[in-house]
């Protein structure tokens, strides 16, 4: 594989990354997706669109976000040096705004009046609510009742921004059900609305679009680390739920010698229903309009999943992740709830940075990897800040006194 030309051929014209991806749609939605695909390919080559997006990223989002050396955290782990790409400092507190501004700019180009989306941890919902307010669009966000209860601050933020938060009350009432409900709403309203999926998944062209909008993360961090250190990092890692922050991180590094690691949620353990580690325990399958690796129950249906991090509890993974694993270019590991919470407190107490529980999975992996490596450097995408998680963490874990940091 010549990764220098990777973006030219992936995905192919039908939205496939090798055997993964595609668009499995009702007849009603095929025309809607074709309209989005045509519009995206047109504006992606438009200097006016690109320049407007660059202006928004600089003046509204506050990009570029910095790369930061965790000197104290590195010292207590006694191994390789840990660095963070601070997406928690992106406006809205997470990486999600990178693709939400692009999707809403696309919606305006297409003449749509409303954006529709799902959210788990609420970060995508908040980011889309901000983007919709910026562009003057209506916004409906579908969110499972379980996640609404866990992510109260983000629900409040969405409502303040003028968004309608629609509770999802069926099934496990988490992210998978929120995606179901959002797709159903889009099928009813596609003439006036656009669906803004929150990760690199769903039917083509969403895995392509979200990846492209998120590549700003990896492009910035690669250049920043070179400027800071004069060479590439040894390891780059990011958490993986659906896969937006991680693919945005990995793809700009594909043509390098850097080791790439995606970190999934192992939750409470390896039993089905106790985790959301699709890569570790899943098999090929189709859901939400795309073919990838997914967790299945005994009937071959999407299995119940769990993670302390609401943004990671999804029973599948973006098709490009499945493809990159099949090529052997990206490796995947899993981190438990306990390891993630320990990392949450470690980064908070040693560096003064409170991470999102999603991002804490990547930090936990970096802490373990640093001890194994003993020397070298690990660059972590800190995909979001933990303001949304502090009440939940303190309620269930106190202030981390039980962890030996």
Please explain how this structure is put together.
The protein has 405 residues and is of the alpha/beta class. The chain has two domains: 14-58 and 96-207, Rossmann fold, CATH 3.40.50; 62-94 and 215-397, Rossmann fold (3-Layer(aba) Sandwich). Helix content is 45%, strand content 18%. The protein has 16 helices and 14 strands. The strands form four sheets. It has a six-stranded mixed beta sheet with strand order 3-4-14-9-10-13, sandwiched between helices. It has a four-stranded parallel beta sheet with strand order 7-6-5-8, sandwiched between helices. It is globular, with a radius of gyration of 19 Å. The model has no long low-confidence stretch (mean pLDDT 96).
Notable features of this structure?
14 strands; Rossmann fold; globular; 405 residues; 45% helix; 6-stranded mixed sheet; 2 domains; alpha/beta
Mean pLDDT: 96
What sort of overall outline do the alpha carbons produce when their principal axes are compared?
globular
Question: Which CATH C-level class of the largest domain is it?
Answer: Alpha Beta
Q: Fraction of residues in helices? A: 40-55%
Summarize the SSE layout with pairings.
Blueprint lengths: L5 H4 L6 E2 L2 E2 L5 H17 L3 H15 L5 E3 L1 H7 L3 E6 L10 H14 L3 E6 L3 H13 L2 E7 H6 L1 H9 L3 E5 L6 H15 L3 E3 L10 H24 L5 E5 L4 H7 L8 E9 L10 H4 L1 E5 L2 E5 L24 H9 L2 E7 H15 L5 H17 L3 E6 L7 H8 L8
Parallel strand pairs: 4-14, 5-6, 5-8, 6-7, 9-10, 9-14, 10-13
Antiparallel strand pairs: 1-2, 3-4, 11-12
Helix pairs in contact: 3-5, 5-6, 5-10, 6-8, 10-11, 14-15
């Amino acid at each position: 594989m010549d990764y220098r030309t990777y973006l030219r051929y992936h995905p192919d014209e039908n939205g496939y990354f090798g055997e993964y991806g595609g668009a499995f749609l009702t007849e009603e939605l095929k025309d809607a997706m074709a309209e989005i695909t045509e519009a995206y390919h047109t504006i992606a080559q438009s200097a006016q669109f690109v320049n407007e997006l660059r202006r928004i990223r600089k003046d509204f989002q506050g990009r570029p976000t910095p790369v930061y050396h965790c000197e104290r955290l590195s010292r207590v782990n006694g191994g390789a040096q840990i660095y963070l790409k601070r997406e928690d400092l992106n406006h809205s507190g997470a990486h999600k705004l990178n693709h939400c501004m692009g999707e809403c700019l696309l919606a305006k180009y297409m003449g749509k009046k409303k954006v529709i989306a799902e959210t788990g941890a609420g970060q995508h919902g908040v980011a889309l609510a901000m983007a919709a307010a910026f562009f003057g669009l209506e916004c409906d966000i579908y969110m499972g009742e379980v996640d609404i209860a866990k992510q109260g601050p983000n629900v409040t933020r969405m409502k303040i921004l003028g968004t309608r938060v629609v509770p999802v009350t069926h099934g496990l009432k988490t992210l998978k059900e929120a995606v179901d409900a959002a797709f159903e709403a889009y099928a009813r309203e596609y003439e006036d609305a656009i669906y803004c999926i929150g990760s690199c998944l769903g039917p083509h062209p969403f895995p392509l679009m979200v990846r492209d909008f998120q590549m700003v993360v990896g492009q910035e961090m690669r250049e920043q680390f070179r400027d800071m250190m004069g060479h590439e990092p040894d390891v780059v890692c990011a958490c993986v739920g659906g896969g937006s922050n991680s693919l945005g991180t990995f793809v700009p590094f594909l043509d390098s010698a850097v080791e790439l690691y995606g970190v999934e949620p192992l939750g409470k353990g390896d039993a089905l229903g106790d985790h959301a580690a699709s890569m570790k325990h899943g098999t090929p399958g189709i859901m939400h309009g795309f073919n990838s690796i997914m967790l299945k129950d005994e009937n071959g249906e999407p299995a119940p999943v769990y993670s302390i991090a609401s943004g990671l509890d999804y029973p599948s993974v973006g098709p490009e992740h499945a493809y990159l694993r099949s090529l052997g270019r990206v490796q995947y590991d899993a981190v438990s709830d306990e390891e993630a919470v320990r990392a949450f407190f470690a980064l908070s107490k040693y560096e003064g940075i409170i991470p999102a529980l999603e991002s804490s999975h990547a930090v936990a992996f970096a802490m373990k990897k640093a001890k194994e490596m003993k020397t070298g450097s690990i660059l972590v995408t800190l995909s979001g800040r933990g303001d949304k998680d502090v009440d939940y963490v303190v309620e269930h874990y106190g202030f981390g006194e039980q962890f030996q940091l």
